[in-house]
Amino acid sequence: MLIGKILSNRYEIIEQIGQGGMAIVYKARDQLLNRYVAIKVLRPEFVNDEQFIKKFKRESQAAASLSHHNIVNIYDIGVQENIHYIVMELINGKTLKEFIQQNGRVDWKKAVHIAIQIASALEHAHKNHIIHRDIKPHNIILTQEEVVKVADFGIARAITSSTITQVTDTMGSVHYLSPEQARGGFVNEKSDLYSLGIVLYEMITGEVPFKGDTSVTVALKHIQEEVVPPIKINPSIPESLNLVILRLLKKNPDERYANASVLIKDLNHIYLEPETPIMQNDFDENAPTQVTPIIGKIEEGGNDNKEDKQKYLKHKKTKKFSLILSLILVFLIASILGALAYSLKDYFNVNEVKVPNVENLSIDDAIDILNQKNLRYQIVERKNSTEFEKNIVISQDPKAGEVVKENQIIKLVISEGAQKIMIPNLIGQYESEAINQINNLGLEVGEVKYEYNNEYEKGVVFHQNPDKNVEVEEGTKINLYVSKGKETIKAPSLIGKHLEEAKEILNSMGLNIGKIEYKASDTYEKDIVINQNPKPNGDLSQNSAIDIILSSGKVTTKNIQVDLKKYKVSKEENIDQNNSNNDDKNLEEKSSENSSEENNSVKVTIELTDYQDNTTETVYQKQHLLSEGVLQIPIQGTGIQIYTVKINDKIIEQNTISFE
User: CA-to-CA distance for 53 and 539, rounded, in angstroms?
Assistant: First the structure.
């Protein structure tokens, strides 16, 4: 088997996709250009047949010389280990025959559009002196975009500008043969146009014009019978299209279109203006000038000269003799075929076999087993599977154990292995979103771990394994790491710790000192923490800060002496004071009152200013009579501070005081 074989160290055979009379067609991968191609391989039974080898080489050379968008491209030709092959363009689509079978009659506009493309391919081939000789729907492929690709120049022959190749054997499909091919006569470009006419007829009507029980019957109809006009079968087509088809199907090649170019011109005209009549010119503009005899006058005698009449009668006799000879040849062929069928009747009695079980086997093993049972195979589908490895048979039809005829096709479904999936980026998604995306892609959720993360909020994926943009098989497990939010730390107790010790504790825990304030303390010495925020055991995230209040020293009491006798109250102050203390008295009583200085009241204020932070605090404020004389006012404080004495908001004294 060629499955898995590599030709010319380049083309890897993957599967069989078709077969014809001379060759088997495989799908292959071009390892050099990394693309899929079709490879046509000559059947093993013909490799020693010189005639077939010549035909196969002729196909290679003829098709490789053509380059047209409506012709299947030929990439390479070669021979390896007596394997003769052609590398061709791989077309994804269906044959025109399959299209007609599925859809029946084709809309006439679509049929004309397809016919224009076929004619365009033939025009290119004919200009390169290549006659296809086997135009039929089976050899015409429609891509998914309905672009026509003419394939299988399997029996094409090159012609020179001065000679026309004579057919030695008729190989084309009988329903699409031109009359000259059916007679074994001369073949030229107009034979391809006749076959195209049959294809167009079948598209329009849904059926071929000539049918019969045997190929001989059909061949005779091509030679002798006129076609039923397609408009009688499908009245919806324009009369102009009906005339074009009838002209293509003329028995006499000279009455057909001169070439594909003229045909394309008429088809384009019909497509755009179907109701406008087309010109029916029956002569070839490029043919050499010749005299056309007027048959009616010759037969009547008329006024023509004797020599012309004799030429005509000779031509008529020759034509009659050729027809008789053709009928004799057809009779002989029919007789030979009948005798051959009788002698080989036992050969067609096909044995029955039980279908073996090839499921769960590799494709190579399955093919070997089917070959041993004289059964053929067809790979109808390749699909991804997580259950079966690549190139393993998933299912078969008919099933194992069924009894079938030898050479019957067993349809196989082959595994392509698990589907390859590109892992998406899940980082930054919430856990539920990431899980939904994993499941929708045909992947599975593996282990989910929850960890603290300072960059991603709680519930968000911050890491995945495997990583993004990695290609994995369907069903692969994806592990997720989900954030629990920022990691929390219990605030330590710093109260009673010296400032430097507090810093060391916070640094070791990944925390920082925040705002520092100083306050006097009855208990703690200077620079000892007396309070903190947050409080001990409060939850903190990494790199958070703790504000602390430090002791500015232990509180002690010192007396500040204020001598009121040194202060003289001005008249204005006295009046202001009386006004403020006697709001309910009338003005005359106040002014008549003549108090002594000793009875005057003043406001005494003492302020302390801290040396370290330069903050000022009022620590004493009270009304006193001047008569009280010298005051000893007790003040509490820490360290060395500046005190300020004010009487009635005027600075009387400012000095330093030590509370140590």
Answer: 89
Largest CA distance in the chain: 180
In the DSSP assignment, the letter for residue 528 is B
Calculate what percentage of the chain has a pLDDT beyond 70: 81
Token pair belonging to 67: 């380059």
| Cβ burial 367-398 (10 Å sphere, 16+ → b, else e) | bebbeeeebebebeebeebeebeebbbbbbee
Please give the positions annotated as active site.
134
**How far is it, in rounded angstroms, from Cα 87 to Cα 337?**
36
Q: Tell me which of 19 and 20 has the higher pLDDT.
A: 19
Is 178 within 8 Å of 76 (Cβ atoms)?
A: no
* Domain at 93-284: CATH architecture: Orthogonal Bundle (1.10)
Task: State the Cα angle at 564 between 560 and 566, rounded to 5°.
Answer: 110
d(CA 660, CA 643): 15
Q: Give the pLDDT of residue 167.
A: 36
**545-554 and 512-521 beta bridge pairing:** parallel
**pLDDT, tens digit, for every residue of 109-167?**
999 999 999 999 999 999 988 888 889 999 999 988 888 999 876 554 433 332 333 33
**Tens digits of residue pLDDT in 396-454:** 999 999 988 888 889 999 998 887 888 999 999 999 889 988 988 888 999 999 988 88
Which of 472, 360, 354 has the alpha carbon at shortest distance from 414?
360
Q: Please, what is the Cα angle at 557 between 553 and 562, to 5 degrees?
A: 130
CATH class of 488-554: alpha beta
The confidence band for 318, taking pLDDT boundaries of 50, 70 and 90, is: low
Q: Is 422-483 assigned to CATH 2.60.40.1120? A: no
Instruction: Give the span between the Cα atoms of 19 and 26, in whole angstroms.
Output: 9
**CATH 2.60.40 for the 556-583+597-658 domain, yes or no:** yes
Q: Which CATH class is domain 6-89?
A: alpha beta
**Other residues' Cβ atoms within 10 Å of the Cβ of residue 432:** 9
Give the residue from 371, 383, 379, 372 showing the smallest Cα distance to 397.
379
Look up residue 77 and give its amino acid.
I
Span 201-219, mean pLDDT? 93
* Residue in 72, 148, 153 with CA at minimum distance from that of residue 116: 148
**Which two tokens mark 145?**
């975009």
- Check the annotation: does 411 bind a ligand: no
Domain boundaries, the chain: 6-89, 93-284, 312-348, 352-415, 422-483, 488-554, 556-583+597-658
Kindly report which listed range (276-280, 543-547, 570-574) carries the lowest average pLDDT score.
570-574
Q: 202: which 2 tokens?
A: 């079948």
Cβ atoms within 10 Å of 544's Cβ, excluding its own: 19
Specify the CATH number for 352-415; select among 3.40.630.30, 3.30.10.20, 3.10.290.10, 2.40.50.100: 3.30.10.20
Model confidence, pTM: 0.45
